[in-house]
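Narrative progress, year one. The postdoctoral researcher (J.K.) led the effort to move from monomer predictions toward full complexes, under supervision of the PI. The following entry was the first complex the group processed end to end, covering 614 residues in total.
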Amino acid sequence: MNYLLWHAPAESARRFPDRPAVQDATTTFTHRELHELSNGVAGLLTSRGLTRGDRVGMWMPKQARSVAVMLGVSKCGGIYVPVDPQAPVDRAAFILGNADISVLVTSRRLLASLSHHLESFASLRAVLVVDDQGGELSQTPVPTLGWGSVMPSGETPAIANAVDSDPAYMLYTSGSTGTPKGVVISHLNALTFIEWTIATFQIRPEDRLSGHAPLHFDLSVFDIYAALGTGACVVMVPDRIAPFPAEFAKWIEEQKITVSYMVPSAFIRLLKHGELERFSYPLLRTILFAGEVFPVKHLREVMPHFPQAEWYNLYGPTETNVCTWMHVPKPLVQEIELSIGTSCENFDCFALTSDGRKARPGEEGELVVRGPGVMLGYWKLPERTAKNLTPNPLHKDFTDLIYRTGDLVRVLEDGTSFQYIARLDHMVKTRGYRVELEEIEHVLHANTRIRNAAVVAIPDDEVGARLRAAVVVEGANGLSQQELASHCATKLPSYAIPELFVLMAELPTTSTGKVDRRSLAESLGQYSAVG
Amino acid sequence: MLRNDLTKFIQENLLQKDPTPIGPEDSLIDSGIINSMGLIRLVSFIETRTGVRIPDAMITPDNFETVTAIERTIDEVRHQRGV
């Protein structure tokens, strides 16, 4: 039976032992090698006392070994917690501490930057350093091991009573209180999505999937597990290439990528700066995008560069992974309003009106999701979980939970597809990442020289939303753009740093005394685009 | 001086977690200093600071490997344009 995340990859190791499974800039593992290596990781973790339900933090550059770690953690019943390797150290330390990790997997450089925090992780029992070939490296402050401690093995350690509703991994997203929150995803949640993608996009052993998204972003769940579950190969875009659009376009051609899943802003960068016409992509057959709205004008322009490809718009928050999809028509006409499509198989999506009934065609409502793909909850946040996972008002006679996405949609005339309208609260998407404006404001407010601050999102075709801040500074001496950006950079990931800070004497307010966000958005929207 | 301005910009805007100073020959890419967002900011800074627009085909890892490589790239574009 395949009911845990590592089961299908283990089956691929039997059926396609010598086919490549994962490739990075320097290393390729076959399915058998990956299986045996991840058994080694599982054996090492088990020997260090990791038991079912323990968390393993992964703060490391994305590489082939990352996949062995993910599978290895799953094989011993642990929960892996990937953290953005580009995150500021305070943010990473917060996440690792919040997850109460037992083991940290990291690189030498990142470990050095985290050294002051290690002792604050009360449950930490061991550190595994992926880019050190040594064995036991040190004993203080916690036992630190090199990758040389991982002994590949044909045997998978047995764990008793593992079930598919056990958590498999946690992904941290922005939180409204100013701190990130962990979305707990079970094996069943993840497999519901993965199995749907394999069947729908007919992933085959010959496929080469590009691994573009970072591991803390759930687009990577598709790249990795759809490949491993079918005998295909996930080809990780090297960090050296990913930021450079023209280099990346050449890489897609050279690496014979057949399936690619990225955020629209990555495609738009390729279109605007990748010189796509210099290369050809006859093998790229399936292109998936998700994470933000893809403006039709850019999509129309980019599609002809990949004439063999079918394009699909996928939609879903981290809490459900993908839950709706649509096949983009070819040719795409300008007048079309791109919808988020219909429910994926084994997902039930519908819209609830503000008075709690199911929206009919033409009506608007909050999109809600039910089914086995919906997360278990937010880590250590029962109240927040109860707010978002609520009883289904349509099924009052038995326990049935729905996830409230907070996204406002309109039901289309077919009664089954949806048009995305807006976030119901202040969460916005910028460059494919979810950002809560309050979180950025919280960081600005933490600076003693800042009296007041408000962040607004200016809708933008290219990046989804441009973040701009209005800031009121204490005293006569202002703060420079760079000082403000540097301050944000100590606490926030780069995509959440406002591109522009406008100093104001006071923030405009509404009649009730609240910050007038609408008028701020209008005035800050008048500055021309940056970057 | 352009080299100092570039170093200062990178130091103040792209270095998030690592306060160690960067030298003209330090790799900006392998160390993760230049990511997608960082590259956009850096290119836009160069255009504002020097008035030189770097063609897309020249925005490559080799040309942005180090502060020295970036300086050389800007010179090359200037030379091609005869400015």
